[in-house]
Amino acid sequence: MSDLILVEKENSIAILTFNRPEKLNALNYATNDFLLCLLDKFEDDKDVKALILKGAGDRAFSAGGDIHEFTNSIKQNSEQAIKDFCRRGQKMTARLEAYQKPIIAAVNGIAFGGGCEITEACHLAIASEKAIFAKPEINIGIPPTFGGTQRLPRLAGRKRALELLLTGDQFSPQRALEMGLVNKVVPHENLLKETIELTERIIRHSPLAAARIITAVTRGINTTISEGLQIEQEQFARMTTTKDITEGLNAWIERRPPSYTGQ
Length: 263
Known about the structure:
This protein is α/β, with parallel strands linked by helices. It contains eleven helices and ten strands. The strands form two sheets. It has a six-stranded mixed β-sheet, sandwiched between helices. Strands 4-6-8-9 form a four-stranded mixed β-sheet.
């Protein structure tokens, strides 16, 4: 399984590369499961403060689910298909979305189906000018199954999302940027460099504060404003007893760079 996702470390950043370039980095079941294992591993690794996801080769970030594999599950019965494919994919994207360390997608090429849904679930995303997106599931007679019917409308708005979901049409990185699916579009050769630079601007801050912000946004976005404000208060309260908040305040008062320990 270790060949399915390559792992590199650059300073405090773990770079995870989907590594099935001959299959356009399609997400078979083993890749999904291995990604979850890596997320568990790096969540407990204090030396890793953020993660970057990218695809091997120049053609694809990920073309989505492995159609040949989930076709076999569908042929068995509906319950098996839901267990093998739908629940597995939804668990993976939900884990990405609620992860306590920042996760940034570096979209280097095709991001179709599940690849687009991973981009939706990641906290931030930067796209190469060569990236291309699509929600093509309707072309094979199914709706998206990794959360795409829920996250894309929340990012792009109902009508724009439905246009893409109902047509299956491909769309450019510039349109992905306009819709809020990605944060920035950069020259292809600068993609990893730009993604690392963005990640480094995040991890210079308290990792505990970053986790509290991610939690407040993820939990609050689908609630009422009053419920969201209560979640915000709870996350602030969790920070008030930490060493990081003391260090941040003291550093500001003393006019020096803070040195956070994540405690």
